[in-house]
Amino acid sequence: MATETSPVQATPASSRVPRGLAKVVGASLIGTTVEWYDYFLYGSAAALVFGKVFFNAKDPLTGTLLSFLTYAIGFAARPIGALVFGHYGDRIGRKRLLIISLLMMGVATTLIGCLPGYATLGVTAPVLLTVLRVIQGFALGGEWGGAVLLVSEHGDARRRGFWASWPQGGAPLGNLLAVGVLSLMTTVQPDAAFLAWGWRIPFLLSAVLVAVGLWIRLGVDESPLFKQAQAQAEARKAAGEKEQPPLLAVVRHHWKDILVAMGARMAENISYYVIVTFVLAYCVDHLKIEKQTALNAVLIGSAVQFCLIPVFGALSDRIGRKPVYLVGAVGVGAWMWAFFALLDTKSFPALVLAVTVGLIFHSAMYAPQAAFFSEMFSTRMRFSGASIGAQFASVAAGAPAPLIAVALLKSYGTSTPISAYVSLAAVVTVVALLFARETRGSELTEAEKSGAADTADPVDATDAEPAPDVPARAAQ
After folding, report:
1. Which candidate, 212, 257, 261, 215, places its Cα nearest to that of 370?
2. Where are the alpha helices (DSSP H) in 239-290?
3. Do residues 24 and 154 make contact, with C-beta atoms less than 8 angstroms apart?
4. N or C: less crowded end of the chain, CB within 10 Å?
5. Distances (CA, A) of 255 to 249, 261, 273, 384
6. What's the CA gap between 359 and 246, in Å, rounded?
7. What is the pTM of this model?
């Protein structure tokens, strides 16, 4: 039976999903993989190389501490990137901003590979390194929100957790590539050659990866939900209604959701950078384990994590976002006490077990996060809301995590306070999740109450009237 619906609503979700979803998921995964490769490459190099190349420090832990300081500064730029990219992503679209973020990240990473060290430039070298790290952070602040939203807004509510988890797989896959290339270089080169120039090759490879990612990302269509929301916004503007900027609107209408998202990221973000970044410094500088051994443990753990992220994403579609996330938060908080005990054995199987189990618990938080955060916000402010919630948390969580861990190790000479630090972060995340609403099954349709856009409260996806979707489903 014919129905009178808008062009977007007339297409049932079930028929929309297969048509372009595979292409969107692939483009988002490849794009996030390239960006995370660049970002994690810096973290791994900071743990292994930068303290010696860019800082004139005699003590290895002091050099690593200074390296991680520049690493942390990059995180400070991520909220700024989230604000800028979120605002314009909600104004002009997800796709354009994703292309800009990819180019910025690739250029900054390639330039790091060309940057002379302290022996050549003196103090100018770490200053330039920090500037390039800030550019990386700014780009990544805009990448995450756009990539996961592009998939979430193309998909349907029933399987959104699964499909939206694929861009999340870009993090372990990017780390897998970054650590894998560094591991290969340390295998085929003696330490002197690797320190002199070998470490630069993975950074220069970024130019090739960015070109591939850009080519694929250019062929992706803009989010249909964004197109619909933009058309509605233009209609309101034509009617003389005032449109509030997305950044102001999201802070006004979704401040509780932003705080929940920030709290949810504490355990996820802190544990990850302890498990995959600080672990390299802990093994090499503190335990005197070979770089290759530590890198291989992270390599195996990242491979397992990449395979498990879609599994946990699908599980969140069946039992809910919160239960899966809670398992990960509680699990990683408890596991960190066994994590360092296993590392201290200096046994390679124990290292692999420590990292892999830690990343399994991290996957339980990270996989449903994309759908969970996307479902918290309405379309015209979703890029801003999801990005702000995720990236502002990174300043207090992931940014100082390796720095705090090194400082605690340097001060106490034991891993006990580091385990306590991660466990405390897990408590914060559990508390935040207790205040969160379950979003599984929410529709991401743009729905607002009547009245001016700058004064009306957007209707949450869970509160939206189901009537507009009923004829479309009946038409099947």
Report:
1. 261
2. 246-253, 255-273, 279-281
3. yes
4. N
5. 9, 10, 27, 12
6. 35
7. 0.77
